[in-house]
Design goal:
This protein is α+β, with helices and mostly antiparallel strands. It is built from 14 helices and 19 strands. The longest helix has 43 residues.
Length: 529
């Protein structure tokens, strides 16, 4: 097991949540749930595991996890993420999201409905209820008895047995005032929001009555329902919101010199994406968070209806920030903060290790290329699919680290261009023509993805701008197996890279970032078409 993974596993919290095993390419290969994350993830490395588990363990390179408030949340989140990522080692569930809900319908004469079809019925949804400890259908039947809403599929024209039993207000024969339904609705919401004492007392009384009648089986059923009710109100669900809600929950944790930020992104009401980062604190906490979120929403192009966190900060682009002081969103924000804290505790050593590796590799790159000053690097890549959606991109590194504020995207304007080499010429010329016009500082190094043809295309563009003697260019060439192999300076100067070296890892990370940026831009461009 790699030392980075060992260090993470030592600090996994003993809390409920989901865990995601990843392979060496950072692909999610298995998603699981746990009431105790620490205990569960360590079980994978026991000697007496099955052949299938050992096959999974052999592919494990890294782990990520999300803390949930309770086991019910973990079950639902696991199903949502399996459905999204479809990891190869997971047994796909037939009905990943078909956990039951109790629904208070939105109609003139509302009723309570038990359903597994989320948002097929108009109304207010309570749930989903995934935990096997919750006797959800028994609770539904109990609520049906307590709240006298109509029970028939459609309101009949004559009274029914439910009315005679006192279980229905009888909208079939009575005109029910809206205030009556409003009061019942408030009582139901109060119950699911934790104000359950009156209902629990009612059930306890029923349990005592049955015990006095020596009807112990019925008393036992009431006790089970009471325990389920307590379980629901003490563990309200945090992983499903209203349908069509695109909501971001920002969690953060600061400790002296470092800040951990977690963004939980809900799409279509479901928590499907988590972004996590550790940052050095060179500035005020609010300024650092604001700067990070500005970059996040600029680069991800994520559109959120609402953003929630526990502190008021200034956000750009008319993003609406909410600071909840109570209720469901306050609880969800608190949980995001808890995730940020544990992400910091499990990843700080790894962050520092990578930072040191990056610094050392950056110094080695300067020495290898004999460049004393390397404040700014530009790296370029081109992308197209059958010459459709022709694009180019540039990523930037300041003092060895990526700076997403300086990233650039290019849509190829010359429709006669039909190769990466021609795209490279156009993109390089446009980028540095703009920089000349704006009179900004040029990079100390240009990196192109490719060999001599790409380098020559870039040099031709710089020559036309009289910049060929100002900005050095290198290419990163691949072998026949499409694996990066050499730094190419010109026809006579090529440096073979040691694939085990820090320099190789550093240059490979630059290639991966610029390639990722290009592929994402290409995909979005084709989606627009």
């Amino acid at each position: 097991m790699a030392n980075d993974l060992k260090n993470k596993l030592k600090n996994i919290p003993k809390l409920p949540g989901i865990y995601m095993w990843k392979n060496i390419n950072s692909e999610i290969i298995y998603i699981g749930k746990a009431k105790n994350l620490y205990n569960r993830v360590h079980q994978y490395f026991n000697a007496n595991n099955s052949v299938k588990t050992n096959e999974l363990v052999a592919n494990i390179h890294d782990i990520d996890f999300i803390i949930t408030k309770n086991a019910n949340d973990a079950l639902i989140l696991e199903a949502n993420l399996i459905d999204k990522h479809k990891p190869r080692f997971n047994v796909l569930l037939r009905d990943n999201n078909n956990y039951p809900y109790i629904i208070l319908t939105d109609e003139k004469n509302p009723q309570l409905i038990y359903s597994r079809n989320y948002q097929k019925i108009h109304g207010d949804y309570f749930g989903p209820f995934a935990d096997e400890e919750i006797k959800k259908y028994d609770i539904y039947k109990l609520l049906q008895r307590i709240f006298p809403l109509h029970k028939c599929h459609k309101v009949p024209k004559t009274k029914c047995l439910y009315y005679d039993m006192g279980l229905c207000l009888g909208p079939c024969i009575n005109k029910i005032q809206p205030e009556v339904y409003k009061k019942i609705k408030t009582q139901i919401f109060d119950f699911f929001n934790g104000k359950h004492k009156q209902l629990i007392n009612y059930i306890k009384n029923k349990e005592n009555e049955e015990s006095k009648k020596t009807n112990y089986e019925m008393a036992k059923q009431y006790l089970a329902i009471a325990n389920s009710l307590k379980h629901i109100v003490e563990n309200r669900v945090n992983v499903v919101l209203k349908k069509n809600e695109a909501v971001d929950i920002i969690g953060h944790y600061e400790n002296k010199e470092y800040l951990s930020i977690v963004i939980h992104s809900y799409t279509q009401g479901k928590l499907l994406t988590v972004n996590k980062q550790i940052h050095e604190l060179y500035d005020d906490v609010d300024e650092t968070i604001s700067s990070y979120l500005s970059q996040f929403y600029t680069n991800s192009q994520r559109v959120s209806n609402k953003i929630y966190m526990d502190r008021k900060i200034i956000l750009p682009y008319d993003l609406k920030l909410n600071v909840p002081t109570k209720g469901k969103f306050k609880e969800i924000v608190n949980n995001a903060n808890l995730n940020a804290k544990h992400f910091y505790e499990t990843n700080l050593l790894l962050h520092l290790h990578h930072k040191n590796q990056t610094r050392d590799a950056f110094e080695l790159l300067k020495a290898t290329l004999k460049i004393d000053t390397l404040n700014l690097i530009h790296a370029f890549d081109m992308s197209n699919l059958f010459n459709d959606a022709k694009i180019g991109v540039m990523v930037a590194l300041e003092n060895g680290y990526f700076n997403k504020k300086l990233y650039r995207k290019f849509i190829i304007k010359d429709q006669k261009s039909n190769s990466d080499v021609q795209y490279m010429y156009e993109v390089i010329k446009r980028q540095y023509t703009r920089m000349l016009d704006e009179k900004v500082s040029f990079p100390n190094l240009i990196i192109v993805d490719g060999g001599i043809p790409q380098i020559n295309a870039a040099k031709r563009a710089l020559t036309e701008l009289n910049l060929h003697n100002i900005i050095p260019i290198i290419g990163l060439s691949k072998n026949k197996q499409h694996v990066t192999e050499k730094i190419v300076i010109d026809e006579l100067n090529k440096i073979t890279l040691d694939k085990k070296s820090g320099l190789y890892s550093y240059l490979f990370s630059i290639q991966e970032e610029v390639h990722r940026f290009a592929i994402n831009f290409n995909r979005k461009k084709r989606e627009i078409k």
